[in-house]
């Protein structure tokens, strides 16, 4: 297992549309394991492969509040096949936009089809924070970051602050 480096906005890689995975094989499982370790270390509740500069349709999610009772989800080629008409609003954050948060409205529940860790096709109904997080991750696979839903003014302000914080953190 190894921890991977997370890229920040405005890295143009975050605008990439990621490519589907043909099969969940040993190499994909290695990526899933490394992504989970990276997500827990951050810490975060979700991570898309493009955030570690790998343009594959692979995400990991763990929205369990409990520290000792981890419940990781591995989703490969995830697709929303149904969304509820009900919406919900969460204050979202992103490991690629550190320390900035904004309200985003999304479908409150979604049915998601994906390949699991064992290359088995699954369909799962998700709600609450899990639904929000999985939609946030699928957005990453399509090159969308949550700040893209904000006004250009707010987005540009956040991107500038993230860039400045990154520069200031470089030890000379
Ligand atoms: O850690 C994360 N928290 C979070 C909070 C609200 C909505 C979405 C998220 S996902 C984010 C981790 C991340 O950047 N995933 O891409
Ligand atoms: Ni994110």
What does this structure look like?
The chain has three helices and seven strands. The chain is α+β, with helices and mostly antiparallel strands and 172 residues long. It has a single domain (12-169), classed as Peptide deformylase (Peptide Deformylase). The longest helix has 18 residues, at 152-169. The structure holds ligand GNR and nickel (II) ion.
List the helices and strands and how they pair.
Layout: H1 26-41, E1 46-48, E2 58-61, E3 73-83, E4 87-92, E5 102-107, E6 110-115, E7 121-126, H2 128-141, H3 152-169
Antiparallel strand pairs: 1-2, 2-3, 3-6, 4-5, 6-7
Uncertain runs: none
Q: How many beta-strand elements? A: 7
User: Within the largest sheet, what's the order of strands?
Assistant: 1-2-3-6-7
What would you report as the Rg, rounded to the nearest angstrom? 16 Å
CATH fold label: Peptide Deformylase
CATH class: Alpha Beta
What would you say the CATH architecture is? Alpha-Beta Complex
Mean pLDDT: 97
Query: How many domain regions?
Result: 1
Q: Classify the helix fraction into a percent range.
A: 25-40%
Bound molecules: ligand GNR, nickel (II) ion
The shape, in one word, is globular
Strand content range: 15-25%
The CATH superfamily turns out to be Peptide deformylase
Structural class: alpha+beta
* Span of the ends, CA to CA: 30 Å
Which structural traits does this protein have?
7 strands, globular, Peptide Deformylase, binds ligand GNR, five-stranded antiparallel β-sheet, alpha+beta, binds nickel (II) ion, two-stranded antiparallel ribbon
